[in-house]
Automatic annotation (TrEMBL):
The keyword Lipid metabolism applies. InterPro entries: PGS1, PLD-like_dom, PLipase_D/transphosphatidylase. Belongs to the CDP-alcohol phosphatidyltransferase class-II family. This is CDP-diacylglycerol--serine O-phosphatidyltransferase. GO terms for cellular component: cytosol.
Amino acid sequence: MLTSIKNNLNYHKSLTNLKKLPQIPSDMITLYRARSFRKIILEKIKVAKKHIYIPVLYFEKDDSGKEVFEALSLSKKREPDLDIKIMVDWYRAKRNRIGESNNQLMTNKDWYHLLSLNFSNHEIRIFGIPVGMIEIFGTFHLKGIIIDDSVIYSGASISNLYFHKEKRHRYDRYHMFHNADLAKIMKNFIDKEILRSPAVQRYDIDHKFIKFRKRYTNQFRKRLKKCHYQFKNIASNEELSVCPIIGMGRRNSLNRTILNLMGSTKRYMTICTPYFNLPVEMIKMIRELLTLGKRIEIIVGDKTTNDFYVDPKKRSFRWINILPYLYEINLRDFVNILQRFVNNRQLIIRYWKYDNHSYHLKGIWIDSNWQLITGNNFNRRSWYFDLENAILIHDPMERNSNQIEKEMRFIQLHTRSILHYEQIENICSYPEKVQRRIDRIHRTKMDRLIKMVI
């Protein structure tokens, strides 16, 4: 017992020792709908004076992408000195969505160059960021749209699906911080640590000038593993504060903070993740917390809400579409092992499903005073390979409790509780095509590699 108390204090001390920035409560806004996320981005772009930085996994060539780009162009026309930069993952921009042919359709990269020709009077620079030597071993997963002194933070990218422009949408979390220090720190990191690298190249120029630079990319990746947001501690542990964190690689500061955050739990913890493929370190921490009597709630999407899910009856079903089933198998095994904690309601598992919408939520809530807002999926790929960031919120006086409670009500609205592992489908109930492919993956032991890199 004394050891567990000491460990809890050590975890808590690690959090309180983090450098933090003061945050005015009224300048931190939680948005609850995808359409509100779209609206606030367009509103902020419209009145921007100094700079607009948009780091996203992808900036899609659809109506939403065009809408945002046109808004950027109008702002540039209004404010000629406005510094506008869009940063996307190097690999994601060069291919179409899974299931689409790259040979028949224009890629996002092609579209970026076309935009530069059509809007040649308004320089809007678009950069491809190569975090890994190949896509499966690292993607650019940085989040936080910086517009002057504000940061709009979400795990969402720019697309119709994320903006809820059509009937179906991908549900994420959306927050806005009006905080000049936070915006400056995140912008400076992009300027100094990302855009200065010779591995990073502009995607809005002619393709013949764009070449993958292996040596520079390798150097870039090594340097990113050692990078941190640079700032001084100007907030106390008695006030509402925010702490930007960035990391890449297994032992990075973001991963350490996630474990310290979990370990500091006094009463209860809530985790949202779209893919149940948690790193071993997080699984061990959950088991330890349950053993110590803590209450844990995990909200995960039903397999049909996964962005890799495709009906097995469709011709477009491919090997990659096995992933939601593998994640469900992970969850079933996890609940089976910890069923006794589910029985006493110490461990609560919720499945999210709402019509045909997809689920992309991630985050951690600890007791009533710590919250992690992040684009990190808490899967093994994000833990080991991707460039990830987050904003840790410390709210010791619970000034933001109303927003937290309202957001959680929205999240839980379309969930159902799993009371027994047998409520989760097993392999025997899957379509025959899925069973055959899973069996083949198990026999070749490829499932371990797949879970590690996707």
